[in-house]
Amino acid sequence: MTTPITxxxxxxxxxxxxxxxxxxxxxxxxxIKLDVSLIEGLDAESIDFLDMVFRLERAFKIKxxxxxxxxxxRGALTxxxxxxxxxxxxxxxxxLRSYLSEIPADRFKTPMKVKDIPRLFxxxxxxxxxxxxxxxxxxxx
Amino acid sequence: MSTxxxxxxxxxxxxxxxxxxxxxxxxxxxxxxxxxxxTFFYRENAAAANEVVAAALAAxxxxxxxxxxxxxxxxxxxxxxxxxxxxGRIDILINNAGITRDNPLxxxxxxxxxxxxxxxxxxxxxxxxxxVPYMTSQRAGAIVNLSSVAGDKGxxxxxxxxxxxxxxxxFTRALAVELAPRKVRVNGVAPGVIETEMSAGVREQAGDAVxxxxxxxxxxxxxxxxxxxxxxxxxxxxxxxxxxxxxxxxFKME
Lengths: 141, 254
Description:
heterodimer, A: mainly alpha, two-stranded antiparallel ribbon, 7 helices, 2 strands, B: alpha/beta, Rossmann fold, seven-stranded parallel beta sheet, 8 helices, 47% helix, 15% strand, globular
């Protein structure tokens, strides 16, 4: 079973994640709060997500394959268990709430389209992405 | 008193695909002579590549060569990452590598079509996918794709090549739209008949007919294409994006 990510681990990577995001989004560092919605709060677009992932790869010297963030969010569920016809299943929603535990419950609207999942993402989501990639790299080494 | 602003190329990191011969070599030399740190890729001809590097080093320029098959996306990503790690950034990309496999359409075999499209189109996608994240992250960069007069005006026995270059024209415009918000400019240069090994067959077989279609009544030189590429990546073209510039001596449609 995967070891849960601790708050200490998140806070250890957050300063670099925040700096990277501020650069990518062209906003002030102070605007990057751990729980701000990247799309609704900071006006991030899909191309910004690619940019942020690229910058995080360089900053932390890790590899984050495309689609990794949704794959992480999906956890142990298979794709058909997680979603059907682009809509997240009940099991998928439970998994998503668990993975994105930092996000307030009222932001999980149902039915949720898979393509809308990034609307939930916050800087903390990216901190978790970095920590997971670091753990995977350490395990592979 | 008038002043001549600099090109802004000195100190930039540039990548040129297919840089060991012909137009590619001229581009490598043009950018390096203006102070760029140029790495070019070549597919097979190591001797020609070594000659370009040796001549450049003798001239005091910064030029390096790497063997790369641009049809291999993973190899492209790795090669570009090596350059970025070494140079810190990537400012200029020239997609020059291209091949021809001329034949009347009915005489093509599968490889004639697949190889031309894989190198001339997929290869450009592969390199751009590797380079663009660096440029968007820098909020700066200039890409020039080498097209051809054949991409617009067609030529007998060149349906595969014409299709590949038409695709590059469309690709250039679409990528310009996509990258403009990130301050990355994307343009193309469409050479006419240039005196290179690649065009030797056409010039030998149909020289008079081809010359009759060129308003300036002569073939172009690789350096004349390199000049156009130099302009498009320089600060002189800071307001130019999404364009395909024809450098063809006034080539007329049949």
